[in-house]
Amino acid sequence: MTDVVLDGVDKVYPGGQVAVRNVRLRITDGELFVLLGPSGCGKSTILRMIAGLEEITGGDLWLDGTVANDLPPRDRNVAMVFQEGALYPHRTVKGNMMFPLEVSGDDRAEASAKVVELARALGINTMIDRLPRTLSGGQRQRAAIGRALIREPSLFLMDEPLSSLDAGLRTELRVEIAALVRSSRTTTVYVTHDQVEAMTMADRMGVLRDGVLEDVGTPEQIYEDPATVFVAAFLSSPPINLLQATLWAVEGQGLMLDLGPQRLTLPWNDPRAAALISHQGRPVIVGIRPDTMMPIAPGSPAPSGTVLSGQVRALEFHGHEWLAYAEAGIPTVDATEVGRPERPRVPAAERPGLRDRVRALFGRPAEEAPIEEHAGHHRRSDLVFRIAPGGRPDRGDRVALAVDLDRVLFFGADGRRITPVHR
């Protein structure tokens, strides 16, 4: 078991491509810490730097109080599981799991008993004499996890170990993995792009974007109290409503949020008013999650300044709930474009052949190739809201939505929270 500290860690590849920028993070002894972010954000690069498989180009990595930048991987007592659990094809499950113990010279009888016990915990005890090619993907991944755990490392690193499995198996395995690493009290760093995995498994988590660590906290802290608009959108399913607004102070009423054709008003006694008043007359981004708005029955009263309205454009049935999309005429925001640092590009001359390959595939220069990034799959012209059972409107209906102002989030034009973030 060990503490992991990243102190201003950078990773810059030859040619100037920045993969990780000034990451400052402490992972405590025995913690299950999840690094979450879209593809290409630098999370696997951080994992590989901790393992010693990537050179650190700036800052320091500390393992249990010792600077480990130049420590060889074999001396870090780290075990790693990759997306595809690579097993030795000529060895049985038992042989694969025993391999680390054989290398370290453990007593064979004790090692065998240890393997059987761990295989039982992983649910593969009936297949320990089978070869990898006879196993399903989930069984192979269980064996790979067992091989990593068997040697009782100080640090356990997992790089998207469930991403290639089907949804049902992912759910089953994430519960098992979390239980196993917690029972072993092994410090674990787990990388994923899946927000559900991160939220359900992590003691704490960090959200990365373009190599920058945007937020760190418990899953509940980050969901309820996100530090940036990108974090709020990335951890939101169904998608959060991100609305453009201008903030005005109105005497005798409070802080008015001018949303174009509609208005919301925050009373002066709201504890956030003191922080928000500094943005008087300036554009802000208002974040409203779908469960923060509730349709009002026709004719029902609602406090002034707490209602938005729109025309239902689409309905979606999700089994346990309905979602509605209402055209409200309010300008919206794309979280992937807010507060994004300029990404340095490697000069084309230092990427031989890349431009031609990209042009052949996409018919455009490499510099113009789109970068896909999940941030909630926001439908940019609509308000998204949940519908209570039995109260479903029809397409084309106009609806009034009562907004729970206490749960509304406020961000500056740079994408950072205006009101204090509590950790």
TrEMBL record:
One of its GO terms (cellular component) is ATP-binding cassette (ABC) transporter complex, substrate-binding subunit-containing. It comes from the Bacteria. The keyword Transport applies. The keyword Nucleotide-binding applies. GO terms for molecular function: ABC-type transporter activity; ATP binding; ATP hydrolysis activity. SMART domains: AAA. Residues 4-235 form the ABC transporter domain. Keywords: ATP-binding, Nucleotide-binding, Sugar transport, Transport. PROSITE patterns: ABC_TRANSPORTER_1, ABC_TRANSPORTER_2. This is Multiple sugar transport system ATP-binding protein. It comes from Actinomadura mexicana.
